[in-house]
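Please go through this chain and its backbone structure tokens and walk me through the local backbone shapes. Keep your notes short.
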Amino acid sequence: MSQHYYSQQPDVRHDRRTIETVLRGKSLRFTSDAGVFSKGDIDYGSRVLIEAMEIPDGSAVLDVGCGYGPIGISAAYLAPKGHVTLIDINSRAVELARENARNNGAHNVTVMESDVLSAVKGQKFDVIVTNPPIRAGKAVVHQIFEEAYDHLNEGGTLWVVIQKKQGAPSAAAKLESLFGDVEEVGKYKGYRIIKARK
């Protein structure tokens, strides 16, 4: 497979499908497609992150690697007086996230194509959430952590979900070196939810 969801312009044939689900007690409907992460259903890691993440109302939130939008759109419902920015390198995912935000009535969102955090240069956030693109490699994942630290307000939090077998220990060590204040807030079937506070 020469391409995967971290490709900027996936050229695989479209295969749109609808996912109906409940996240944080809210019934939501997502359209997904071939060439994006977890096209068949919302992946388990994203689900456990959505259930665990704390988004104070009024927060400026950033979802890094948003895919077709389940984490960011859930954050938008948790913080109706806040604003959520969803970014992804994958142009197809970005279009889907825009469509899904509209169709689910999440009006307090902005969706942008972005290589890591380049599109939000100079912006600051209260909460950053990410199910990082493990397939892109450790260097990219660690770059996301570094740039997330720079884009957080003082006292802001970064929420990360990562599988133990896909590098949770090294991710935790990297976050520890950047933030100092790092807590593992949950373990679910090999997935770790890590919260880091600036």
Observations:
- The two ends are 38 Å apart (CA to CA).
- The longest helix spans residues 138-151.
- Residues 16-197 form a domain with the Rossmann fold fold (CATH 3.40.50.150).
- Residues 1-5 have pLDDT under 50 and may be disordered.
